[in-house]
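Usage example:
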Amino acid sequence: DSGVTQTPKHLITATGQRVTLRCSPRSGDLSVYWYQQSLDQGLQFLIQYYNGEERAKGNILERFSAQQFPDLHSELNLSSLELGDSALYFCASSVSPGDEQFFGPGTRLTVL
Amino acid sequence: AQKVTQAQTEISVVEKEDVTLDCVYETRDTTYYLFWYKQPPSGELVFLIRRNSFDEQNEISGRYSWNFQKSTSSFNFTITASQVVDSAVYFCALLVKDGQNFVFGPGTRLSVLP
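Running the assembly step on the lines above writes:
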């Protein structure tokens, strides 16, 4: 158990819908990262937050957004969902940028 | 730009064999970090090791060992006397010093057969 929690574990929804994925980092970790893992794209970095502020953006679509709250938990919002958004979404946390990241169990999103 | 290459897509070995997973990275930064993660069939990503660019000392942890060679931009991972429980996808990753971009390789799927 890495100490990073993600909810829900599984999510099934339809195209065009909007969903919110939630992540709680390890106690003491200030950085939160979001990744998407799909069969054809591998593990892709989406976005990083540090102590509530966005720090880096990767291959995140404009339909996706995220935020980190004062209690350091983070949410990833996915809107106007498409079939291709079906993937495993991981959250990771670290004490600070550059430190090893510890990953949550992931949320498996299926868009029908 | 940073890049991580894991040329071996899949490897199959028989239990107790040694196996080496290759990782080649590209970066222009002089300060960077290299990682290995394991993703077993259950799906979670498990941190194995972190190495910074100034420390080329090889590391051994039980049956696992890592060979970092800056001259060839490689950070290879060897499992000695492999076990069925080692079956997983292994990812090599690169983080440059500003910590803003964590690049994963495509992964190597290791199957250890009994």
